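pasting for ref
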Amino acid sequence: MCHPGRRQALIAAQQLLDLAQVRRVRDRIDRDVTRPLDVEALAREAGMPSGQLGRRFCAAYGLSPYAYLTVRRVERAMEMLRHGDHSPAGLRLAVGCPSTAVLVARFTELVGMPPEVYRRRAAAGSAGLPWCVTPPVPSSSRVEEAPATAPRPA
């Protein structure tokens, strides 16, 4: 039987390896943000089943791989809207979204306003803080917090 201290060290080492694998998956999503997401292929590259990848990714980043990709696409769309005049269709192609309707829906959900309104506000200098400062979580993969409990008397 394995010594408890050694077992804990092995578990900690495995957790670091798992986190490194998940980080590589996140980096791959960041690099290929305009391409369709193939979770099965990402999982194969990481050497784990897709369900396990989804759970580990969510544990590490608070979002599923697909929700993370959606957030990154919306961030990119926000950047483009702040620096130019893009039609929704052109924006969709530039960020790799499957359809204009999906892009507008996700953008509105995450940013709180449609792309056209965001573009006008950005041009007027009132679009608000950049996405990375105040990131909402997509409702399709929301991770709810447990309700706060009253402190126990000492």
